[in-house]
Design goal:
- The chain has two domains: 212 residues, CofD-like domains (Rossmann fold, 3-Layer(aba) Sandwich), CATH 3.40.50.10680; 39 residues, no CATH class.
- A seven-stranded parallel beta sheet has the order 5-2-1-9-10-13-14, with helices on both faces.
- α1 packs across α14, α2 runs parallel beside α5 and α4 packs antiparallel against α5.
- It is an alpha/beta fold.
- β11 and β12 form a beta hairpin.
- It is built from 14 helices and 14 strands.
- Bound molecules: guanosine-5'-diphosphate and calcium ion.
- Guanosine-5'-diphosphate binds next to α1 and α2.
Length: 336
């Protein structure tokens, strides 16, 4: 295998890709060339405009993680971060300071916003930012592609007794960062998704891949939105490459994040098998061929096999690059 494409959200996807790259470099992935290239198609439906800046959380998390600039304790944003701008915005009583932007992180958003306003597309801007974060380490070995250059935003309907309709709709980031996903998500609305066009190179990256991986990313608001870009699901179903996924749910719980709330909002079962069946076997109208679950979910394997998937169990906690490379190897072996 020479070309691997990964459909990624932020933290879960980025950690997986780091392990995948580790495995490629170490030569521990079955059937994968040592000079294999990785194309990351990243979710952009979490993006938001805030303080006049365009912020792309998942693109940045992938970029910072692979470029060794991510604060691993927080799981987002930059290392060696300072917060002077945020403190001064708060001193002004400015709105939306619940969305924490560190000073270094702001530099990324300033460059992005200026380039977008100068007429560059999000794909072009992302490529320019990767000149700093990815190219020095990986050369042409890793590409990061936004799923679309169009504006797409996930919004969440929540209960609000003070509103005449009994409901209020907030941006996904407000639901997650400000409200900590502590109230039920009654409905998800993917604004702009049905009219979006796949970003340049996105469909080709799936058609031309030797392997497509669905990492342990959020199945609804990360991978689900990528799959919702018109045309993408069709090429995924048609590609000659095997498609393998890894469960983001271990023992009935999401490891971190809000996958439980999101799966519940779309009526999917919150379990390793539930997510595999939510994606579904390509042989039966779905989008994956193989589904790897954690060892604690080994009992789910027969149910997945009955649904036409290749399935197996292996440890899926991403504790280290080595451990995550072993996960990638197990997933590849499943469909290789
Ligand atoms: P986000 O955009 O930052 O929310 O990141 P992703 O969508 O890429 O991934 C978030 C999901 O990763 C979470 O909902 C978890 O279910 C999953 N996750 C995080 N850490 C781990 C881990 O160590 N192992 C597994 N299997 N899943 C994980
Ligand atoms: Ca995200």
């Amino acid at each position: 295998m020479r070309h691997i494409t990964v459909l990624s959200g932020g933290h879960g996807g980025a950690k997986f890709i780091d392990g995948l790259l580790h495995g490629i470099a170490a030569g521990t992935l079955p059937g994968v060339d040592p000079d294999a290239t990785v194309t990351v198609v990243a979710n952009t439906a979490d993006d938001l405009w805030i303080h006049g800046l365009k912020v792309c959380p998942d693109l940045d998390t992938v970029m910072y993680t692979l470029g060794d600039g991510l604060d691993h304790e927080r799981g987002w944003g930059r290392t060696e971060e300072t917060w002077s701008v945020k403190e001064d915005l708060e001193a002004y009583g400015a709105p939306n300071t619940w969305f924490g932007l560190g000073d270094r992180d702001i530099a990324t958003h300033l460059v992005r916003t200026q380039m977008l306003e100068a007429g560059f597309t999000l794909s072009q801007v992302t490529d320019a930012l990767c000149e700093r974060w990815l190219r020095p380490r990986y050369g042409a070995g890793v590409r990061l592609l936004p799923m679309t250059d169009d504006r797409v935003e996930t919004h969440v309907a929540i209960a609000d007794p003070d509103s005449p309709s009994g409901r209020r709709v907030v941006h996904f980031q407000e639901y997650w960062v400000r409200l900590h996903a502590a109230v039920p998500a009654e409905q998800l609305v993917f604004v702009g998704l049905d009219e979006a066009t796949p970003g340049p190179g996105v469909l080709e990256a799936i058609t031309g891949a030797d392997l497509v991986v669905v990492p342990p990313s959020n199945p609804v608001v990360s991978v689900g939105t990528i799959l919702g870009v018109p045309g993408l699901r069709e090429v995924l179903r048609a590609t000659s490459a095997p498609v393998v996924g890894l469960s983001p749910i271990i023992g009935g719980n999401h490891v971190r994040g809000m996958a439980e709330q999101m799966l519940t909002a779309v009526g999917a079962e919150v379990s390793a098998a539930g997510v595999g069946l939510h994606y579904g076997a390509r042989a039966a109208g779905g989008v994956i061929d193989g589904w790897l679950v954690d060892s604690v979910d080994a009992a789910d394997v027969p149910r997945l096999e009955q649904a036409g998937l290749r399935a197996a169990a292996a440890p899926l906690w991403m504790h280290s690059s080595e451990q995550t490379a072993a996960m990638a190897a197990a997933a590849i072996a499943l469909v290789g």
